[in-house]
Amino acid sequence: MYLYEGERTLKCSVFDIRGTVLRYQYSERIKSELIVAGKLLGVLSELKNDQLFGAEKVMSSFLDALIGEVEIAYKVTGLRIFRETSLKITEVQGRISLHEYSKANNLLSEALSLVTTSSHNATQLLIEKGCL
């Protein structure tokens, strides 16, 4: 497949473009969900007793769903970064169950950094190939 950009012709493999776009899409979706998880985690430290118990259950369910999304991204793209992200989120769940919210927040930040880097790299590749 050839893409034309002004006078310049760029040769792009359809497979490479497809894989890079998938990487970008999954990374951006997961990045958004990690940001939401961070905001939810921030609320946990303000709660007590039954409210905290209920909020932790909701947070755990949200993180389970997020892990499911990340695992789908891993299966579709085969990128190790998504597996690493999934493991970090699992560790976040453990830290929350121990009420170690600061450590959980740090792990969420690490996961967000991994996914942001993946998104950035995909964007850069698409720009280099003249696809964006």
Structural description of this entry:
- It is a single chain.
- The protein is 80% helix and 6% strand.
- It has 132 residues and is mainly alpha-helical.
- The chain has a two-stranded antiparallel sheet.
- Strand 1 and strand 2 form a beta hairpin.
- The longest helix is centred in the N-terminal third of the chain and has 31 residues, at 14-44.
- It starts with a strand and ends with a helix.
Offer a quick outline of the entry:
This protein has 132 residues and is mainly alpha-helical.
Offer a few descriptive terms:
132 residues; two-stranded antiparallel sheet; Four Helix Bundle (Hemerythrin (Met), subunit A); mainly alpha; disordered N terminus; 80% helix
Total count of domains: 1
Count of beta strands: 2
Radius of gyration, in angstroms, nearest whole number: 18 Å
The SSE string, one letter per element, is: EEHHHH
Please, how many helices? 4
Assigned CATH architecture: Up-down Bundle
Q: For this structure, what is the CATH class?
A: Mainly Alpha
Instruction: Label the structural class.
Output: mainly alpha
Distance between the termini: 15 Å
Find the CATH topology: Four Helix Bundle (Hemerythrin (Met), subunit A)
Identify the overall geometry. elongated
Largest sheet: 2 strands, antiparallel
Helix content: over 70%
In the sheet with the most strands, the strands line up as 1-2
